[in-house]
């Protein structure tokens, strides 16, 4: 398996070189030359596998044998050895038509742990076997930062800097990042929103001289490994309930940066027979508007009760557009140039019909989000975080007869008590989260200014 850029101007790379490149050197995103297709018979054999075993099976189709199996196995079992559930991502039945896949049993209580615990081990492995300097640079709307820091803190040969929007993440999300005092961790709190942080990151990765000089590596979902690791729990969820008779299986995904939902799209292309892929978002509803109208156009930023989805520019949209355009890198580059020049992308005709066949989408209003949290606590004694509540609202909108929907629970509700408290519900924090409030914080507040951020990076990376 080799990997190429969506924009067609990068020589094909192997798996490890793709990991190290992160954002493609031509500004595109790396994708496999060919997506492997898993046969129905193999899917049936996979039904009996544990999460870790399934992970190894899926990755074996993508790693080019660059990583010896025993080394990969050790990384996988180490990555998930500290999850609070033996299943890693346990499936909770809410009612006859709804399951919730709990993705929040990792060390930072969010779905990002599933991919980033592994990526931390992978980067550490690459640093050792290749003698590579690993300087990780990423932006977060809340959960990625904490999970990435947790995955690499204290690891030899790795430094990590995370940008987060100042006062625009939940308090628990902020504390999970900024109470870490390891010398290889730098938190920059940027006066702006997530899109501002992400824009700086992309510009720095596109500056090949700067990227090379400071050995920058990506931890965001621009890195294909993040996408691939997330496909595992799509297969795992489907295979856990895939024997539920003749019912079709939908998956509803809270999504802001298009990474998690794109992982589901990739799983579908690999042969996983998901019925509907449902995008759940909030009032920053660029993805809903694209699915409903064919226009991808960033709008005004709105702060919501589900801040991890407060995103207007979805990084992984380019990967989906590449496949929508039948892997035509020239057309893709034209569309992306149009986005840069005109501030929007429009698809119509057959392309728009394909978009609507690929996805359903719902932008959930703030009050609706709170109402869903209250409803499911009252009716099912099941507490949802606000992002998961958006996913449940989308299930209610698009779930049909003779269908079962799996909604991804992307975070533990304790991470977003500001929203939960508005419903009148009082929750008890897990001990690791309660302890955060007694710890000192370590972060640097910077203006939304690329030059100021660069100065901080130069001092940190050395």
Automatic annotation (TrEMBL):
Enzyme class, broadest EC rank: lyase
Keyword flag Amino-acid biosynthesis: yes
Catalytic activity, reaction form: O-phospho-L-homoserine + H2O = L-threonine + phosphate
Residues of the Tryptophan synthase beta chain-like PALP domain: 86-399
Names of required cofactors: pyridoxal 5'-phosphate
One MF annotation (Gene Ontology) recorded for this entry: threonine synthase activity
Catalytic activity, EC: 4.2.3.1
Database matches in InterPro entries: Ser/Thr_deHydtase_PyrdxlP-BS, Thr_synth_N, Thr_synth_N_sf, Thr_synthase-like, Threonine_Synthase, TrpB-like_PALP, TrpB-like_PALP_sf
Family: Belongs to the threonine synthase family.
Summary of the function given for this chain in its UniProt record: Catalyzes the gamma-elimination of phosphate from L-phosphohomoserine and the beta-addition of water to produce L-threonine.
The protein, known as: Threonine synthase
